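Structure ticket #2291
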Amino acid sequence: MMKLNRVVAAVCVAVAVPVILGACAATSAATAPAAPATPVAAVKNTAMPAKEVVSYRKDVAPIFAKYCADCHSAKAGAPTLKEYDLSADHYKKEKLGPRNDTYETVIQLIAYPDAGAFMRRLDDGTSPLAGGKPGNMYKYLCEKGNDAECAANLKVLKAWLGEGAWNLNRFKARGTVPAITKEQLDKLVLAY
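Resolution: structure written out below.
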């Protein structure tokens, strides 16, 4: 009887183990990620250009340090956005605007609480809601009179925001300008 039990156990193991292992292999094959497709460029034997990510640290902060820090940094005595809102007339007389010397302070001028302020002030006048008039800070994106540099720096800022994210809308509608939408906010990239 003991021999029979051993034989039955051996047969069960001999049958069960391959079945279980086969099931595991099938499951792992089904859940394993597929091999990446070969890029078209590799098939054609050409190089694909790498998509460069525009980031705050690498691309935007140097522009702000060079052109904006004299009036919009903690070092210059510029206030936070909330401090500015409490004493706007005082800061205007001092020729100081809200800080934009950190990632966080810039985000407030882009998304919330002052949605679109960044874009309205730096726009070149070509945005649909600009009415052909550049923002009051656009001319400060470059050395005085260097229009090509202003345009190039604006291009960097627009790329940083993300495709289709440059808009002049406020958080709440004002006059004929509609409020910013969730879809517009969802386009923001703003890589740090």
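Closing remark: Confidence is low (pLDDT under 50) at residues 1-43.
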